Amino acid sequence: xxxxxxxxxxxxxxxxxxxxxxxxxxxxxxxxxxxxxxxxxxxxxxxxxxxxxxxxxxxxxxxxxxxxxxxxxxxxxxxxxxxxxxxxxxxxxxxxxxxxxxxxxxxxxxxxxxxxxxxxxxxxxxxxxxxxxxxxxxxxxxxxxxxxxxxxxxxxxxxxxxxxxxxxxxxxxxxxxxxxxxxxxxxxxxxxxxxxxxxxxxxxxxxxxxxxxxxxxxxxxxxxxxxxxxxxxxxxxxxxxxxxxxxxxxxxxxxxxxxxxxxxxxxxxxxxxxxxxxxxxxxxxxxxxxxxxxxxxxxxxxxxxxxxxxxxxxxxxxxxxxxxxxxxxxxxxxxxxxxxxxxxxxxxxxxxxxxxxxxxxxxxxxxxxxxxxxxxxxxxxxxxx
Length: 385
Description:
By secondary structure, the protein is an alpha+beta fold. It has helices at 6-33, 38-46, 65-76, 80-100, 103-115, 234-269, 277-280, 282-310, 316-341, 353-362, 369-381, and strands at residues 120-123, 139-143, 146-156, 164-170, 183-189, 195-197, 212-222, 226-227, 271-272, 275-276. Strand 2 and strand 3 (146-156) form a beta hairpin. Helix 6 (234-269) packs antiparallel against helix 8, helix 8 (282-310) runs antiparallel to helix 9 and helix 9 (316-341) runs antiparallel to helix 10. The longest helix is centred in the middle third of the chain and has 36 residues, at 234-269. It is globular and about 80 Å long.
């Protein structure tokens, strides 16, 4: 592949060994029991996979964004939910901490986060909608030397297992509908009085993501636990969200590849009237050919976009396009993989249907494809795409 080099191939070998020997044997059990993959998450930290692009001075590998994509793609071929947990930790919470944090905050939290010593979560989405910040109800008020938070968040990944929550709250009389000024980010350690942790939701897909609600009732944190400027965190949030949307490209690519490889193997092995389905039925061959074509088209979009990101481009439009197209391709390939398996494709124990379930959640979780298409349209109008 044109985007591989010696350094990236070395990390890819490490990831492939990790996936083959440690992730794959546990993937079905984690999905079946809806368990957060804690041991695998910690192991990813030991291997440096949680700090791929974190600067070396803060305990990371100092790698580029394309390397990040390769790691996520490879893991998602077998256990997409592990990349969901990693993204919430490294890209959302970690991205805000890296962009807005003081040197002291980074030393205290980013260094152990890069190694997996601590787990982080990002609390932004509320019941009024993830992108509807002007109606957010979670508020933080300065009372002497402490911030006091009240409100709640929904559909937050890594709840319960996180040691640190990066939480977005309103700190002004209102949030500006254009600039989104008036929102601030805060560092809230687990166990802080007034911080409530809900029960993880049982979802269609992403089993084991520990996704659920947070509540704040007179939750007091030290004044210095604000992250970045008061009322001005949304610019950084926009960038960290873009990083998350970018990552949905390689994750969706991995999901599609995982489903495709299972369908291809089954079509070559399953015989009817003395011939493998691949040889006997033109429809089987054509389905697989189109699935392959969609995967390779997505691959080209993913790694060309990541190449732009590594050249310093923000990729505001194409980053969001990766999530839109990624969800579309992975849903399509996952659906066709089930169809090629026939009746047994609907049986959970075959393992193929879970790729479609995870792909379906990719179209909604973190931001719906409809909302992202609207953002892309706005960027097109402003000649930023």
